[in-house]
Amino acid sequence: MSDEADQKDCEWRTMLHGFADGELDSDRAARFEEHLATCSDCKAEIERVRAVRQIIDQDGVKWRPPEGLHSQVMSMLSFEHGALSSLPLGRRSGWRQALDFLRLWSLVPSLAALAASLIIFASVPSPTLLLQDQILASHVRSMMADHLTDVQTSDQHTVKPWFNGKIDFSPPVTDLSKDGFPLVGGRVDYIGGRAVAALVFRRHGHVINLFIWPAVSSTQAADVLDGYNMALWSDGGLAFWAISDVASSDLAEFEKLFRASTHVGTE
Asked: Which of 36, 38, 67, 242 is the most exposed place for a label (fewest CB within 10 A)?
């Protein structure tokens, strides 16, 4: 068997780290030592592992893991079996690579802690990405679950007071029917860990959800997410997220008209 085939198919490689850690029984350890005499790849791998261990065992060479790292790593691993399935397909590969990388370094506990801490900060989706996913999910769910509005009317003077006592702020409400964006109604939704206002408009049969909640400023966000156009702005201490499958030019026009109608100026 060639060295390349040994590296790919050698059945003894599953025992390699157990042998390095002294975890094999005497019979298997003896047989593995015999195998090392005939397998150059396993022998080279054992030497690499021992060399790393030798460096780590030196006095003064330590990597102290951050506080709470163990619980963060365990939560991250459990995420693979639960929340991973809810992420958009394009983002699952990053998590999978991070988990594979963590397992690869698990033979060296101190380096595993270092690698895990880097993965936690580099691979976890940013708050803005998670917020975008929640907004997308709420938009799609509102059209699938027959819960587009809690109050259904184009009368802005009915919709605005309807929110009183249901949320802790007063969202601006306007009807843009004369401009081709009729108000359908409103509802209370839950995004980013808080209750938010959702105003519903239509454009040529397409639904526009406008989510509103208190925020000093907006953050950078995607213009398109899974085929839906998004517009984000903030003013007057409120954040506004509009999402729809209308053309991006229509959504930009909607933003312009809404801001002008509610006296929301430029940021």
From this structure: 67
